[in-house]
Amino acid sequence: MNAFAAVPDNPQAKASAATLRARIETLPLADKVRLLTGETSWTLFAVPELDLSPIVVSDGPIGIRGIEQVSTEAAQMPSPSAVAATWNTDLAARLGTLIAGEARRKGIDVVLAPVVNLQRTPVGGRHFECYSEDPLLTGAIAASYVAAAQVEGVGMSVKHFIGNESETDRTTYIAKVSERVLREVYLAPFETVVREANVWSVMAAYNGVDDGTGVAPATEHDHLLNDVLKREWGFDGVVVSDWLAANSTVESALGGLDLVMPGPGGPWQDKLLQAVHDGLVAESIIDDKVERILRLGERVGAVGRVAHAVPDAPDALHSAPETRALLRETVARSIVVLGNNGILPLDPARAAIGSIALIGPAAVDPFVQGGGSAFVQAPYASTPEAAIRDAFPHARLRVERGGTSRLHAPAIDPAVVTTPGGSPGYELSLFDAHGHPLGDTVVVDAAESWNRDVPIEARSARVRARVRLTRPGPNRLEVGVSGAHEVWFDGELVSASTEVANSNVILNSSANHPVGPAKRFEVGDAEPVTKAIDAELQVVDAEAYGTFVRFELRHEPHDIDLDDELAAAVEAAAEADVAIVLIGTTEETESEGWDRPNLDLPGRQNELVTRVLAVNPRTIVVVNAGAPVLLPWLDDVPAVLWWWLPGQEAGNGLADALTGRVEPSGHLPWTLPARFADVPVQDARPIDGVIDYVEGGDVGYRSWDRLERTPARPFGFGLGYGAWAIPHIAGTTWRPDGSLVVSVEVENRGDRDSRATAQVYLECVEPDPDRPLRWLAGFALLDVHAGQRAVTDIVVPCRQFEVWSEESQQWVVSTAELAIRVGQSSRELSPSRPLPNRDLIHLQTSQ
Ligand code: BGC
């Protein structure tokens, strides 16, 4: 037996499976097939005969986006990598309880989360949405999150199964990964979430997979879905396609997919019915899928449901005191101290701080969540400025942006947009394929940049708008459009394209990126200026995502010279007792839909840091990013904090960390490179449609170790505010199930109470090309008083001592000689200690 032994048979579950099957048998085939495709983008069909109400699903990892066209407010958690940086499975569980409460409040049955793909390359666009580059840490955090949510009767759909580690050509590339690497690395967190948290749904990815057993889209990979996930792991939930990922009828039906989303339309429905009639798909296969959906319905309470959504109460959970407190704690606890010469914490009671310069693009406009389907409309935003004012009530605070981290202007203030006739909004006219008008010209609120209220027969659109620029000085106007267009500013053609956009705009490319015509206009002191904007646009037919026109106005009203902004920031820093510089990325850089070309901080932010540092030796830099960025000045700055994408409690959590009210005890769940040239996997561009995982199982820090490269900060690193001796191994004991208990002792040599993140690594004594040199095998948190020691037992699961044998198709205990080391990062470790003699236990291999 080992930690991954099959879930024991549950007599009740069996009885219920038999009952489910009996009920399904009464249903006509057409009704069964109908249930296997969504009725809408986010809902399944009801089946009155089975007393099944529509099951409702929604994104995503950091909060409940909801299924309305315009998102309604929801608690906005820190990004998943921030949660992983706490290394705190209890905290992940509390967040799981919160997301379940939010799902219930918004009438959602299944949450499309968490993402347990690994951070294979730091340029991956959805890096912020993943937990870690390590499978064990990813699995542990995800399993706690899922289990806590599902206990509340809300399902989770863990995603994206499998090989979806990047975004470039994400709907077409083939991930070439050996079976062994898949088993030991990329499947491992999915296996944990299936076996330990009994997750109720798994989302099959867009990409294809070549695992050596066959090449197939992830939505129809018979071996991975049927053999591994369903038969071997005993997964009894629903495999749902990623949105529009399913492209075949018979192959996907036979290959293990249970539910096509979104609907209506797609490759199943009538085509699948026909395939059953033609004998290409057995009815028993359809029955199995229906049974799985019905089981999900029972689990989430959609069977026999009387009413669904609980009304959105004014004292909603998203801003209730306990939610605020939990999110605030998560922000503070996730922050990683990358460097600190003793300047932090800035205890307001003790430090002589008369004035603070709060500087940087993220000080004015923090980047609180990544771009894409994970987007959540927060009920409020705790800003750094307000939080620092609260924390340091007696200090003078000057805020300076010091440049920009954005490539494009922010969304326009809708109040400055009118129709040519002067009504608020812009005019939209639609035309059919012959250029005939469809209905009347309508007036649209300028805040609505994706106009989805478009009839299916519309092919083109005309937009007319007037923008009133009132702020004197240089103003920049931009228009974001999708696909074929012509755009005129004041009668001058500023952009034209004949390239037609389709659903790829949403799914697959930087066409979704808000690029478009831009122009600068000078506004004088005396008179505001009005600009006429006219556009001819294509109507985008994005299949199940609907038909829409994209017209997004963006405006930078103070497009002042960046030199001036930088100079003002430096001046503010020079005058202040302390300079706090908030820099980072934006959703233009970190988003679903595209990968990054490099790890540079956008704009002139490095220059900002070095110039501030030159005038103020008491400078603290706070990095507001989800994924690694290069910090060339890292070791020159007195203190550097990694603040992640912190969500609605951004400012309060940061202030708590700065003052030490809560210790920022985060540890990096990934490696922070010092130079781009050192990054083991520098891009995710498919070659001839294939992404070859040539590094094998050496994902993340494992490659850094193999290549003997020195990162800026290693995996697992985090200083907190304690002062620790390197932990040491106080004892080791095998357990009968083949797991190893490692007693780890830590010693807090500092004068503050502090939290340790004890990490256990296994190491190959003789380097083996098929095994990492070293890997994380267990971890635990310990709160230790100043000057005290503490010991904890960390269980290293049996699986950590096993390898996947492709030959015998099973897990076997590794014969390689292994050693154990412990530490608070992957690079500062205790001396290695041999494993105790394994003959002392009776080992079994797991199946
Ligand atoms: C994303 C999924 C998401 C789905 C629904 C897809 O494009 O890859 O993560 O759950 O859309 O929004």
From TrEMBL:
GO MF: hydrolase activity, hydrolyzing O-glycosyl compounds
- What's an example GO BP annotation here? carbohydrate metabolic process
Q: Where are the transmembrane segments?
A: none
Q: Which residues form the Fibronectin type III-like domain?
A: 756-826
Arranged from A to Z, the UniProt key words for this protein are: Carbohydrate metabolism, Glycosidase, Hydrolase
Output the superkingdom of the source species.
Answer: Bacteria
Gene3D superfamilies, alphabetized: Galactose-binding domain-like (2.60.120.260), Glycoside hydrolase family 3 C-terminal domain (3.40.50.1700), Glycoside hydrolase, family 3, N-terminal domain (3.20.20.300), Immunoglobulins (2.60.40.10)
Q: Known Pfam families for this protein?
A: Fn3-like, Glyco_hydro_3, Glyco_hydro_3_C
Presence of keyword Hydrolase: yes
For this protein, the record's InterPro entries field holds:
Cellulose_deg_GH3, Fn3-like, GH, Glyco_hydro_3_AS, Glyco_hydro_3_C, Glyco_hydro_3_C_sf, Glyco_hydro_3_N, Glyco_hydro_3_N_sf
Start and end residues of each stretch annotated as Disordered: 827-847
The family annotation for this protein states: Belongs to the glycosyl hydrolase 3 family.
Specify the protein name: Beta-glucosidase
**Species for this entry:** Subtercola lobariae
